[in-house]
Structures are given as structure tokens and as C-alpha cells.
Write a structure and sequence with these properties.
- This protein is α/β, with parallel strands linked by helices.
- It has a domain of 157 residues: 3-Layer(aba) Sandwich (Rossmann fold).
- Helix 4 packs across helix 13, helix 6 packs parallel to helix 7 and helix 13 crosses helix 16.
């Protein structure tokens, strides 16, 4: 894969569909989107949750008209990555390790076979589950770093001569930690949250480490640390907090029951947002926190009154009016829900924009770089790895 060319194509694609991903669709109410997007959403209104599941999981929707089919085909091509998910033998879960974490650890261990780093620095390694696997299976010495004293203490309880545990602040203790990175080391971040991915990259860049393996997550915590590469800075794509959250939640396998539950929530939330706009109950869009699941079992009027109380909005509407408003708005609410389903499809492209930008930053520093999927999507949707090595001098 040509990383730079893929990045440019994704950037151009995202620019083209900027309207869809820049903000939550309901925030655009009552303004309707351009005619093409309106037609896409109206077409989706006629199909089942099984069809929507196929659309969200595989970008397949055979009934779509030509422009939507073209959109799906281009998007599917752009998010395809080299697949390096290994075939693993079934092994027993260790206490305190989820199936997801177990799968990730086994895949990383398999990938590092025959790579032979002198030492691995396991950034934000917690209790050292990954480090323990690498010392046992790969015979790699590990330095497990985490800011959480409790997790570090827990890791030390499993005695291993090949692992050193250290409580450290990745940012404040930079000078000390860099001095501990031996020549030939691997900088390893298995789901480096938010800006931590960029910190791990900088440790690799500024030290005598020769290998980097990093998996990002929690992009909504990235703050302004994206558009790192010179290529992206030449024509930067600003990413809103809504876009970063969309990237964070992307690529998750859904079932019809998940979409049914999501729609039930959005019917109530979207109706309430429309009500506040139609009756000018607030001067701007109000973000509603997650309601308790039982609140979506109430009548809309009961739900609305609970939410209004939470955000401090006063009104004089009776329950009959509120429930009638909900019924009258149902068709329009459905339209915006279908638009939000289309919006969800762009999350993986946004994630790739962030990750490929990091990869290009490393290429611009003259490192060898690969980007690929290493975990099964159904177990770990944040499955994109960056592997970089320094060129031999």
C-alpha cells in the first residue's frame, strides 16, 4: 500500500463529504442537507434493520441508487488495509484478562516472532499482561511503564526476571525514560489512548530504539495533536470533536438488536432536540448526556421532563402535547436517524486519516513504515497497527 497516496485519497474523499461528518446530524436541524443526501436517507427509510446491519458492517446495500453505490464503493476501497491477523491456536485466558485483550496480546506476540528486539518498552502497560506474554513466548526483556501505582504493584506480584515494572509519567519523566531505552529496543503501545500514541512515536524518534509498534484509540482525547506530517500540514483537514468521536466509535460490528436499541434512543433524543429548536427553549444546541436505559421505556413526555430538569429548561407543555409532538415528528425524526446511519459509515475513514498521518510523519523522518490490521474486527475494532523501523546506517 502506498501510504501517502492512500492518505491523499482519503483526505479528498473526506473533504467531499465534510457536511456529513463535521457535526452530529441532528445539530443541523431544521436545515435539510443537499438533495443527494436527502435522497439517500429517504431511500434507506424503506428497508429493514437486517439491511442496515449489512450496510454498517460491510458497506453493502444492493438496493441503493447509483450515487450512493458509488459512495459506498469508494469508501470501501479507501478503508481496505493489508491484513496481518495471524491464525492462532486456542489458548486459555489468564485471570483478569478479557477475551479481547487476550486476542490482542496473542496477535502482537505472533507478529513479533523473529523480529527480536533487544528490549520492549510497554507504554501504559498496566499490570503487564502483554509484557508477561512477550517474556514467556518471545523471550523479550520488557520494561512495563504505567502511571497507575496499583497496576504496577499488581504486575510485580507475578515474579519474572525478564520484566522491570516502573511507575512513570510518560510526559514528565521523558528525560529519565529515554535514557532507559537501550539500542535495538522496541517502543510498544497497545492501544495508546489519545495523545499517548504521539508520545510513543516521539520516544521512538528521540531515542536509540529501532522498532515501533503502536495501536491508537480514544481519538476524542487527541486534542490538537493531529495533522503531524508535512504532507497534511500543506493542506490540513480540521477535525471537530464530533469527528474525533466518530473515529473512536467506528468499525464496530453491529447486530440488528444493536441498531434497534440505538434507534429507540435516537427517536427520543432527536425528538427532544427538535422540540427545543421548534419552540426556542434554548439559545443553542444542548448536548444531552446518556439517559438511564429505563428512561427510554417511559412515555416521551416523561422522558422529556426528566431531561429538561437535568439541563435546567423550564416549559409549560402538558404531557398530552409532548406525546402528540413525538408522534407528529416521527417521520422527520426517522429521516435524521437514517442520515446519522450514513454518517457513521465515515468513522473508519476518519480514523485512517489520523493514523496514516502519523505513519507519513514517520516516513518523512526516513523510517520504514507499515500500516495494517492485526486484530479481528469483531474482537477489537481498533485494530490498525503502525510498525516502523529505523534504516540501517
Amino acid at each position: 500500500m502506498d501510504i501517502k497516496q492512500r492518505f491523499i485519497h482519503i483526505r479528498d474523499f473526506l473533504k467531499k463529504y465534510h457536511y456529513l461528518w463535521e457535526m452530529e446530524i441532528i445539530e443541523r436541524y431544521p436545515t435539510l442537507p443537499q438533495e443527494e443526501y436527502t435522497q439517500w436517507a429517504q431511500d434507506l427509510a424503506h428497508y429493514s434493520f437486517d439491511s442496515f446491519t449489512e450496510l454498517e458492517n460491510k458497506l453493502n446495500f444492493l438496493q441503493a441508487e447509483a450515487s450512493f453505490q458509488s459512495f459506498l464503493k469508494e469508501l470501501k476501497d479507501l478503508i481496505q488495509l493489508p491484513n496481518k491477523v495471524p491464525s492462532l491456536e486456542e489458548s486459555q485466558l489468564k485471570p483478569g484478562v478479557t477475551l479481547k485483550k487476550h486476542h490482542e496480546i496473542e496477535c502482537v506476540s505472533s507478529f513479533l516472532q523473529n523480529k527480536s528486539p533487544g528490549r520492549a518498552l510497554d507504554f501504559a502497560g498496566g499490570a503487564g499482561h502483554l509484557s508477561h506474554c512477550l517474556t514467556t513466548k518471545n523471550k523479550i526483556q520488557c520494561l512495563c511503564l504505567d502511571s497507575d501505582r496499583t497496576l504496577i504493584s499488581k504486575g510485580r506480584q507475578v515474579n519474572s526476571p525478564l520484566i522491570e515494572f516502573r511507575q512513570a509519567d510518560i510526559i514528565k519523566d521523558r528525560k529519565t525514560l529515554i535514557s532507559m531505552i537501550h539500542p535495538g529496543s522496541l517502543c510498544l503501545g497497545l492501544h495508546s489512548c489519545g495523545n499517548l500514541s504521539n508520545q510513543v512515536i516521539r520516544y521512538f524518534e528521540e531515542s536509540s530504539a529501532t522498532m515501533l509498534l503502536n495501536f491508537g484509540c480514544c481519538y476524542h482525547k487527541v486534542s490538537d495533536e493531529y495533522n503531524l506530517s508535512q504532507l497534511s500540514q500543506g493542506d490540513p483537514l480540521p477535525l471537530s470533536q464530533h469527528a474525533l468521536m466518530l473515529a473512536t466509535r467506528s468499525h464496530t460490528i453491529v447486530e440488528p438488536k444493536d441498531l434497534i436499541r440505538r434507534e429507540k434512543v435516537k427517536r427520543y433524543r432527536y425528538s427532544l432536540h427538535m422540540l427545543t429548536q421548534d419552540h426556542q427553549l434554548a439559545p443553542h444546541f444542548i448536548t444531552l448526556g446518556n439517559a438511564h436505559p429505563t428512561e427510554y421505556e417511559l412515555s416521551f413526555a416523561e422522558y422529556a421532563n426528566i431531561q429538561f430538569q437535568k439541563v435546567g429548561i423550564e416549559h409549560t407543555f402538558c404531557e398530552e402535547f409532548l406525546n402528540q409532538y413525538f408522534e407528529e415528528k416521527s417521520h422527520e425524526v426517522c429521516f435524521y436517524i437514517r442520515l446519522s446511519l450514513i454518517r457513521n459509515l465515515l468513522g473508519r475513514a476518519l480514523e485512517l486519516y489520523i493514523i496514516l498521518d502519523r505513519a507519513i510523519y514517520l516516513q518523512e523522518k526516513k523510517y520504514n513504515v507499515e500500516v495494517f490490521e492485526l486484530f479481528k474486527r469483531e474482537l477489537s475494532p481498533r485494530n490498525i497497527g503502525i510498525f516502523a523501523t529505523k534504516l540501517s546506517s
